[in-house]
Amino acid sequence: MEYIDWLQWPAMIVTLGASWFIASQTKRKRQVGFWGLLLSNSLWAIWGWHDEAFALVALQIALAGLNIRGASKNDPP
């Protein structure tokens, strides 16, 4: 097993933790969740690229875009 194969476990843990924070009612915790989700998107995309799971890479790019859209709509103008 290659070392990069182990990347899926931290990606899963970061995704779960970030999802917990993103559901918070406090702005600071939601910000932590937002950055955590972007980190998890990156980790999953790296792992997916190595594993040639290109649909997963495309999904992570789309999810990152949706996270950015959601964060921009969440902040007052």
Description:
The chain has 77 residues and is mainly α. The protein has a domain at 21-71. The protein contains 3 helices and no strands. The longest helix is centred in the middle third of the chain and has 24 residues, at 27-50. It is flat.
Summarize the structure.
This protein is mostly helical and 77 residues long. It contains three helices and no strands.
Notable traits:
mainly alpha, 78% helix, single chain, 77 residues, 3 helices
Architecture blueprint of SSEs:
Blueprint: H1 8-22, H2 27-50, H3 54-74
Helix pairs in contact: 1-2, 2-3
H/I helix tally: 3
Averaged pLDDT, please?
A: 93
Residue share in helix = over 70%
% residues in beta strands: under 5%
Gyration radius over CA? 13 Å
The number of strands is 0
Alpha carbon gap, first and last residue: 49 Å
Look at the helices and sheets and give the structural class.
mainly alpha
Stretches with pLDDT under 50, minimum 5 residues: none
What is the molecular shape? flat
- Helices and strands, in order, run as HHH
Largest sheet: none
